[in-house]
Amino acid sequence: MKIVVLGAAAGGGLPQWNCGCVNCNDARAGRLRSSGQSSLAVSADGSHWSILNASPDIRQQMQDRPVLHPHGLRGSPVASVLVTNGDIDHIAGLLSLREQTPFDLFATAGIHEVLEGNRIFDALARDKVARRRVALDTPFALQGGLQAMLFAVPGKVPLFMEGETVDTGLIGEQTVGVRLSDGQSTAYYIPGCAHVPDDLLDRLSDADHLLFDGTLWDDDEMIRSGTGIKTGRRMGHIPISGDDGSLLRLAGLTAGKTYIHINNTNPVWREDSAERAEVARQGWQVAHDGLEIVL
Ligand code: MLT
Ligand code: MN
Ligand code: ZN
């Protein structure tokens, strides 16, 4: 199985259009590698690819990866798209995948409802793009020899659908992780997760590789940096650091580990930071656009 990171950054990307934090400024100046928004491409046979989350940057992300270029006059090696939640960084790229090329669009019924509630997604012609509703914890086949399964992780409704009160520990169809298997190796992709319950730890015990929510280093990072007013947990993202952060919670996992969906404020972007050294010491790599993981 081959996993290619199309976008390592969280919503907004690195740099984000309206952000003058040190990381965004350094990325603009070429001192830090820029990064597109949250997305992976996966394949078991090298010719049928699945896109996990369709980011607003998908057009450039596909241009940058020759394996995703079209064959012939019209057509695409992209056989399917899977969506793990309804946030803009994971669904807006669907709009760039209009133009009459067929693919399967896999998501839970709850996430399909979000897409159905937004008529702009009708731009994906129903006779070309098959909207496949998949039940939680039920394996299904992706073209090219991969088996996928969606499972609930703690999260919330999409940001643009939040009401006055928000349950940030919702466990259901709104926020899911993906298990991928080619019959030999198993990978997990969890770009959004509010906390790590024990049953998630148990589930991950067969992982060869885990790509996990690395949105923020500190829960209050956006507040302290003056870039936002919410904690990570309020946004549905567990921090990396701290007593119940992901570094400690996932410390016992012997799989390969990659942080992904990283907010532009996160110090782990910087190769010379103490935070980057700390995650490396704990066995984690930090994703970047174009990173390939071969299992
Ligand atoms: C998130 O992961 O919290 C979202 O991408 C937020 C957003 O839609 O900007
Ligand atoms: Mn996001
Ligand atoms: Zn920034």
TrEMBL record:
GO terms for biological process, alphabetical: pyrroloquinoline quinone biosynthetic process
Keywords: PQQ biosynthesis, Transport
Pfam families: Lactamase_B_2
Domain Metallo-beta-lactamase: residue ranges: 48-256
Superkingdom of origin organism: Bacteria
InterPro entries xrefs: Metallo-B-lactamas, PQQ_synth_PqqB, RibonucZ/Hydroxyglut_hydro
Physiological role: May be involved in the transport of PQQ or its precursor to the periplasm.
Protein name as catalogued: Coenzyme PQQ synthesis protein B
Originating organism: Ruegeria pomeroyi
